[in-house]
Specification:
With 282 residues, the protein is an all-alpha fold. 74% of the residues lie in helices and 0% in strands. Helix 4 packs antiparallel against helix 5, helix 5 crosses helix 7 and helix 7 runs parallel beside helix 13. The relative contact order is 0.14.
């Protein structure tokens, strides 16, 4: 009877989570379907499959990429630059900071660590206006400088995960490196950093997905007349009197999420390993 009840419980959980998965997948399905429809049918027959009357082919993709005076290719380039630079800065500096915080058991390090953790629960809306003003004063309003801002916002989660993993690394390994003549910098890059590989992969994937899809921070910080990321470019797909071509919008949304989905599916096993290593060990 216990085995039967247990099997029934598993079946119910499977059905429940399958239904929840379908609910989450529906918006993605709607984006895919409507990216190939004419604009009028997007509004009236949102969840219908394209037919001979509503099918627009690749016209929506062409219109979305050529709409207005701002090239879509520039938006792609700026998104790639911001994403790669931000992720590189976060991985390098937060891993070094987490290593130092974990090894130096001082009051200052504990305060810094808990401040980083606290930053994870602070709503972005609380700081966005002072942040925008500060970024303008410090000239951080370009694709090459906004990664510094992303470093501040991404440090909390990254330091939390890195610190948890560093605590699981035996201190004797670093002591042996010091005996062999390694200084702190060489010890980090030659000994600690290679051992942080699982967590670095995990943090890197999460940060890439966040920065690539982010809209609010670039629109507040960047000079959007010169620099537009893909989410900002999609937002400006407006015609006269504020009309929006939903077909073209859906087409560009599909183009923007395909790289992230493919990247996530290829690296999801590393995310699970890295999160387990960084949040459970130590």
């Amino acid at each position: 009877m216990r085995i039967l009840a247990k099997n029934r419980g598993k079946t119910l959980l499977t059905v429940l989570f399958s239904a929840i998965s379908v609910i989450y997948i529906l918006p993605v399905v709607a984006v895919v379907l409507n990216s190939f429809k004419l604009n009028t049918f997007v509004k009236t027959n949102t969840f219908d499959f394209p037919n001979s009357e509503s099918f627009a082919g690749f016209a929506n993709f062409e219109k979305g990429m050529t709409f207005g005076n701002y090239p879509f290719l520039n938006s792609v380039i700026y998104s790639v630059i911001i994403t790669l630079l931000s992720t590189a800065l976060i991985l390098l500096f937060t891993s070094m900071a987490a290593w130092y915080i974990s090894r130096r058991n001082s009051v200052v390090c504990k305060i810094v660590y808990y401040l980083c953790i606290f930053s994870m629960v602070v709503p972005f809306q609380m700081v966005m206006f002072p942040l925008s003003k500060t970024a303008d004063r410090l000239n951080l309003n370009s694709p090459w400088t906004i990664p510094i801002v992303y470093l501040g916002f991404g440090a909390g989660l990254a330091i939390f995960m890195f610190a948890g993993f560093v605590k699981s690394i035996p201190l004797e390994i670093e002591e042996a490196a010091a005996i062999d003549g390694c200084g702190p910098v060489r010890t980090y890059f030659s000994v600690v950093m290679p051992m942080l590989y699982p967590t670095m992969i995990s943090v890197g994937i999460l940060e890439i997905m966040w920065v690539w899809n982010d809209y609010l921070l670039p629109v507040l910080v960047l000079d959007i007349n010169k620099y537009r990321t893909i989410p900002i470019h999609i937002q400006y797909l407006k015609g006269s009197y504020g009309t929006v071509d939903l077909g073209a919008t859906m087409a560009l949304i599909l183009l923007s999420i395909i790289p992230v989905i493919a990247f996530y599916l290829a690296c999801q096993k590393h995310i699970i390993k890295g999160v387990a290593a960084g949040a459970v060990k130590g």
